[in-house]
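Entry 0007
Protein: ABC transporter permease
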Amino acid sequence: MMLRFFALRLLRAFVTIALVVTFAFVVLRLSGDPALIILGPESAPEAIAAFRKAWGVDEPLWQQYFSYFAAIAQGELGRSMRDGRAAIELVAERIPATLALTLPALALKIGIGIPAGIFAALRRGSLADRLVMLLSVAGFTVPSFVLGLVLVLVFAVQLGWLPSGGQDSWRHAILPIVTLGIGGAAVLARFTRSAMLEVLGQPYVRTASAKGVPWRRVVIGHALPNATIPTVTIIGFMVGSLIAGAVVVESVFSWPGVGRLLVVAVSNRDLAVVQCILLLVAATMVVSNLVVDLLYGFLDPRLRQSGARSAS
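Output (structure tokens):
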């Protein structure tokens, strides 16, 4: 039964990745001619034709599509049209810089969001609850680029405490990490509060309290474990969007990560680099969702059984 549950989720993961890659492939080739963008529209027609032939963009779209998937099956993700280097090599060089922002930001989201949500739920209706919810609403409604610019204006320009961009030292990472972390912490706080309030209203929680079980034990032993599923969903989404979520912030703070590389590659129509990054983002998102599905089955066997029945 567990094997069938896993096989169904794995099949969905492969289909999702294929659809994402197909969508990106078609949109990129319909959005502009890379030969004209890289060489310039004033280039000689012979040079443009030679460029198109060398990179295979003169072939019919369906032929390019099957050639691309055949190359992926062989582990070849293409080469950059700008410098001829392997796309995966260019992307791999930027991954450590992106993770240096996104992993601490993820820890910041979890470290602030979950305790804040639990705190607000246990004090429902109080001034503290309203304050936490007010801050959370402000945190996830403000766009990340606006928040980043405000932080730069305050802490870099006005106070001069932190640098406004670059990657020269650990101090350069503080503002982008905070920018990435605040919005996610706000979302996580709201979901954690909602999940906790729903669980605290369940009959088994009231029964445990009526039997004289200490409130701290009721919260830790009964409420928290049963409120984990919605929280795991949000955390899984955050893990899956570690790379994609850094695009705007890396651009604002001139951070040399994968997100900034994606912006440059899209503007240059560097097809192989863009496709490689999108494939990485899709794979990361799908794998994280697959892990979340498996955690669902572990945390709640009823979900695993229903998933196995739907596969039969």
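Curator remark: Residues 307-312 have pLDDT under 50 and may be disordered. The CA atoms of residues 262 and 274 lie 6 Å apart.
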